[in-house]
Backbone:
């Protein structure tokens, strides 16, 4: 079967399913199935593809029709210009979370950090890759997630500046950090999510109690002991959570430094410092 035929077939199936980014999804899945580059697909539409490859591509399309995210099918995702391994054990790192990294890098020049609930390690790895003066801890309650994060750190050349720690929030830690950063679980237990999320992201990384605020309570409570003088806290937030999150951290002696929006214009990340600093 020809490349152009596969593209047409894939687009037809995804359009019928209602996928938003049909052309991009089909192209990425065809690249994954064939090993061809984007340029090769464009330049060689008449190229013949063997039966095994056709079957693999059709399987990928069937999985996407069933709402499995493209990054999960491919096994990796681009984040902040770098490639990250993605498995069922970790949250799929999304472009929205890049504003967390941007906000942290804007307000800190170096020092020690802790990335709470690191998942794939996208935040911790990117911070170290973008700033040679940063090093720290990437922690998670999931040992499987930590293995993925460590693999991503090695692949991106920063494993020597990150210690991977199995644990919940600040459990077992006595040190202070110049930066506390997190994309924590923040979804309410009763909140309905798209199948692409609810069926494929680990629920441990999504849900945070009846009001979606449990993670922020734990993080804000820990800042009293674990945030160094003049330290920075940066967290990702969900829709409608900014006021309550601000109140929690203000109660812990911090003040809002800046709030950042994602590409859709939604409040997505908040940065705090000690009020007296």
Residues:
């Amino acid at each position: 079967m020809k490349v152009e035929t596969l593209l047409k077939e894939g687009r037809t199936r995804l359009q019928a399913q209602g996928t938003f980014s049909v052309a991009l999804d089909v192209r990425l899945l065809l690249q994954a199935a064939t090993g061809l580059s984007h340029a090769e697909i464009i330049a060689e539409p008449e190229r013949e593809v063997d039966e095994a490859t056709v079957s693999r591509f059709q399987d990928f399309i069937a999985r996407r029709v069933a709402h499995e995210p493209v990054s999960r099918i491919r096994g990796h995702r681009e984040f902040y210009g770098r490639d990250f391994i993605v498995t069922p054990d970790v949250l799929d790192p999304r472009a929205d979370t890049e504003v967390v990294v941007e906000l942290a890098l804007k307000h800190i020049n170096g020092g020690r950090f802790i990335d709470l609930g690191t998942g794939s390690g996208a935040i911790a790895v990117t911070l170290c890759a973008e700033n040679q003066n940063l090093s720290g801890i990437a922690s998670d309650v999931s040992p499987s997630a930590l293995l993925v994060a460590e693999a991503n750190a090695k692949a991106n050349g920063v494993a020597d500046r990150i210690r991977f720690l199995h644990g919940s929030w600040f459990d077992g830690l006595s040190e202070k950090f110049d930066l506390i950063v997190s994309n924590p679980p923040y979804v309410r237990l009763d909140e309905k999510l798209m199948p692409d999320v609810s069926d494929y992201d680990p629920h441990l990384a999504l849900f945070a109690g009846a009001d979606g605020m449990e993670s922020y309570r734990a993080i804000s409570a820990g800042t009293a002991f674990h945030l160094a003088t003049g330290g920075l806290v940066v967290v990702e937030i969900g829709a409608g959570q900014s006021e309550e999150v601000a109140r929690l951290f203000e109660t812990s002696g911090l003040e809002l430094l800046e709030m950042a929006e994602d590409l859709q214009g939604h409040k997505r990340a908040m940065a705090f410092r000690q009020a007296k600093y």
